[in-house]
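Q: I'm writing up a methods section and want to include an example of the input and output format. Could you take the sequence below and give the corresponding predicted structure tokens, formatted cleanly so I can copy it straight into the document?
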Amino acid sequence: GKTWNMSFAPVNDMSTRGGVDPEVFLGSDGKVWIYYFGSNNTRGDPARNQPDDTWRILIAKSNNNGKSFVEKGISYQENQGLTDPFVVELRNGSYRMYISRGASVFSAVSKDGNLYVVEDGKRVEEGKGGVPGALQLEDDSTVIFVCQRDGIYSSVSKDGLEFDDFEIVLEAPSGKMICDPSPEKISNNLYVMAYKEKPENVRGPHEDYVRIATSKDGLAWEKQEGIVGTGSVPALLVLDERHWKIYVSG
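A: Here is the clean output for your methods example:
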């Protein structure tokens, strides 16, 4: 987590004009899977407008340990704005995808991680935060992380569905904003979160950069010194305790 090298990880056979907001992990088949928001709008905010009024989360898989990917299809789509998928594997082997809609979060579930079906209700109510990350803790509870204007907040749920009582866990530095939490368990008593930091007066991702924070229990977090690299919307992949990758949007 101290020394990083930058490389390009292309997604081949992409069905949309671009892909942003990556979410990546080791799938049940042993391959590296990457989910991303597939956008056909390359000008302005893709969360607000798509040419065919369809917002898609796509899945691609890698045969070379995450060096490159091949798109496999649509995991979830609907006709209103959405961004920033984050997936957790549940204890029963199924998958739950938390999805941002503005300053709120909803979820969808899948038996195999490929095609997702939306769940009723909202996981995070409007105004409490969006752009989610999540962890399953040792007691089977789920902690969700969301972005608000002054930092990254968290809430714990017994079932992964109802989240209340949000508390700030990482405060944004003065004159900057932080967002896009991507937490993962590295080993017992070590959790790592990649997150984005950007100057408040900058629009777009061209000056975003990535930092990491660490935790012993997944609940209390401490920022680490130094910058991982440039890029936006980081997705942390833990291959093993000593080998990590962070995927970013350019």
